[in-house]
Amino acid sequence: MQPGGHALRRRRRDRVEAGHRQYGWRRPTLGARPTSAVGAQCCRPGDVPGGAERMDPSDEGAGLEKPSLPPAGVIPLVDVGGPPVAGRPDPVEVWRPSLAAVLVMVLAVGFLAGTVGFMLGERRPSPTAVDVGFLQDMTDHHEQAIVMGKVLQTAEGTPEVRHYANEIVQSQSYEVAQMLTWLDGWGRDRGEEDRGAMVWMGHSFPVADMPGMATEADMTALQAADGRAADILFIQMMIAHHRGGIDMADFAKREAKDGRVRELAGRISKYQAVEIRELEATRSRLGLAS
Q: Percentage of residues in the chain with pLDDT exceeding 70?
């Protein structure tokens, strides 16, 4: 036996006994659960590291009290918070508004809704004869310009003139849809074909005779033309068409009651005047004078 062997065994025994007294363990018995290489695997409430068994309180020297467990099916409450903080409400307390607060909120929402409705009503007055008549007549006026532009789209003319035709088709198609939408919102339609046009300006013409409208003969000639001849006819007819539309738009810009109609009329007047100047410059540059 190596020197000091007795002392080593004694120290080892003392440490084991100390562990028995402190933790209530006793030596593993036959059939105890083995431990893994990295530590104990405790799978039952009575299992403890190292395969040892929890010492029964009746064992001599245990000195441990058996903890009281809650009844089956009862989940114990765990206190995870501290004492309440002064001036801070309980986090689990649910805020419930008083009846007075609810009434105030309802009245505020009602007042806001009434104010918005009043403002919208101020911006959308009942349409006048000028509002309705301008939209109806300008719809017919625009539709003829769209037909003229589509004719030139298929003609083998100058690409530059065809570009203007494309722009007119797109912009005036959009404005027609806009005007019909407003009329529908007022419960009005686009008007009968045999109605008296421009009554809202103090006149009365058949729709086909409105200022700037091309005659049936002019439209037939444009459809039959091609190439350079189509460019010349298109520019000539569209300039006259725009001038008639500007007269109508200028009147509506001054006399219409609905702000949307005034804005649209001003836009038509402005941009058709610009297009007249561009068409005249193009005609001069390309030598398309009749």
A: 58
